[in-house]
Amino acid sequence: MERGFRLFLILGALSALGPASMDIYLPGLPTLTREFGTTESTAQLTVSLYLVGLGVGQLIAGPMSDVRGRRSPLMAALAVYLVATVLCAVAPGIEVLVVSRLLQGATAAAGVVIGRAMVRDLFAGKAAARYLSRLVLIYGLAPMLAPLVGSQILRFTSWQGVFVVLGAAGGALLLVTAFALPETLPPERRQPASVRRTVTSLGDLLGHRRFLGYALALGFGTAGVAAYVSGSPFVVQDHFGKSPQVFGLLFALNATAMVVGSQLNAQLLGRYEPRRLLAGALAVMIAAAFALTLAAVKDLGLLPYAGSLVLFMATWGFVPANAIALASADHPDVAGSASALLGLAQYGIAAVAAPVVGVGGSSPTPMALVILVLAMLCTVSALAIARPARRPPISVLR
Question: How far is CA 232 from the centre of its chain?
Fold first, then answer.
């Protein structure tokens, strides 16, 4: 029991490193923009390139973990993460920071992709979806607490100090992984070290309709969240004139809504199938995105804007666990590669959303419209592309 709980905590912390590294410095993004004398859209490249790194890094770490096991690739990535984080802290200009963030995202990706693969090593179907939902109790705290922590750090130091904190967290995780994380993929279940075989496995996954549909749904949905994450610091602080601390509190409220949604999903999985819960959540998500767009276009103020986002994030809490479990259900032998492609779709598509939102400056309207379009694409992917195949008609011989 104690060992299982310890594994749960470690997997949650590893999964949390990626979103924490993205979100903790968001309250300092407007200050960083002014300090480097750059534009909002350019500054948001530190978000979008980080997301690119998260996607590409998973594509490397996932298949590698199928070949070499889960622990050794994870420890190597965490070591490089420390180097990348130091480079972020000492970056003399926006160009160096952008490149360092790309490397930071690529190495933080290992925690996300290998953590999911380890869950698939141990669980399947409803059990996997329920375990992933429970993990949100830990890694869901990352986006909830990170902006709050970041805003408080900014009261005593600069945005560079935020990366010092991230470096300390990465070092601690490296030690925990080295001394306390068990291997979940025994040698007899590992894939041969063949680039051709890896490429073939990735191609087979992309050719699987259900996998592709749920992967796209995960990607478009995450892109909607990324649009909110990258645009909201400017909307809250510049458009609505609120402080970094107020932004941190609003961000924490939305993250709390996501955690509540994910835990409700875990409870409901005892009674309903993952696909049914996913469909219901997506319907409410589109309604929330419409409400957000109306509040932005009509400029109804901060309260309707914030309320719509809370509803959006609560329904988003249902999506990742169900989409990942449904996509991975048919592919236990290549869990690392499947997790990698899911991560690539998730963060690769999301990387496009951040700079698009930045083109509109601090206005809430572009962000709301992008979120609405992405919510609709997410729904189409999950309910149309990934729909179950129709059963052939039963012929009756007379």
Answer: 17
Residue with tokens 């007379």: 398
Q: What is the pLDDT of residues 317-373, one digit of tens each?
A: 899 888 888 887 766 666 677 777 887 787 778 777 666 776 666 678 888 898 999
64 Cβ contact list (under 8 Å, min separation 6): 73, 336
What tokens appear for 47 in the block?
């978000």
Weakest-pLDDT range from 20-34, 80-94, 100-114, 131-145: 131-145
CB neighbour list of residue 217: distance below 8 Å, 6 or more residues apart: 278, 319, 323, 378, 379, 381, 382, 385, 386
CA separation for the pair 49, 68 (Å, rounded)? 28
Structural domains of the chain in order of their starting residue, each with its CATH number:
8-184+192-385 (1.20.1250.20)
**What distance in Å separates the CA atoms of residue 23 and residue 144, rounded to the nearest whole number?**
9
CB 261 within 8 A of CB 314: yes
Query: Between helices 159-180 and 2-23, what is the axis angle to 10°?
Result: 160
Q: How far apart are CA 202 and CA 90, in angstroms?
A: 37
CA dihedral 295, 300, 301, 305 (to 10 degrees): -20
Whole-prediction pTM: 0.70
Distance CA 195, CA 235 (A): 45
**Other CB atoms closer than 10 Å to residue 291's CB: what's the count?**
20
Determine whether 208 is exposed, middle or buried from the number of CB atoms within 10 Å of its CB (0-12, 13-18, 19+): middle
Q: Where are the alpha helices (DSSP H) in the chain?
A: 2-23, 29-36, 40-43, 45-68, 71-89, 94-122, 125-139, 141-153, 159-180, 195-206, 209-234, 244-268, 274-297, 302-316, 319-328, 335-358, 364-380
Q: What is the DSSP letter of 334?
A: G
Structure confidence by residue, pLDDT tens digits, 116-151: 888 878 887 777 778 877 777 676 667 667 777 777
| Count of CB atoms situated within 10 Å of the CB of 353 | 29
One-letter amino acid identity for 156? F
* Biggest alpha carbon–alpha carbon distance for the chain: 84
Query: pLDDT by residue (tens digit) across 189-230?
Result: 877 766 677 777 777 777 778 888 888 999 899 888 888 877
Tokens at residue 15, please? 């999964």
